[in-house]
Amino acid sequence: MTTNNPVTYNEAENRYEMWFGNLVVYANVRRDKNTLYIDYVFAPQELRGTGAAGEFMSNLMDVVRVEKLQAVPICGYAASWLRRHTEYQELVSD
Length: 94
Description:
CATH architecture: 3-Layer(aba) Sandwich
Strand order of the largest sheet: 1-2-3-4-5
Largest sheet: 5 strands, mixed
């Protein structure tokens, strides 16, 4: 699944979002100085197995890179995704 929609920050919800048609994949986050804690990643049932969450994570990590942040994956999905995608390892805080 590929979309041209960007990852955007929803300040009211404290989360990054990416829309796929009328469905949204999101990550609840907390930010402390230059660290982004990824607390929870959610994809609607209809998008599971389509690659939408992975595409979202890739785009979210591109935001982390551009904003010169370090990511701390609290969410199990985010942690396992980051272990599989070594191209983002320098962005993961120890």
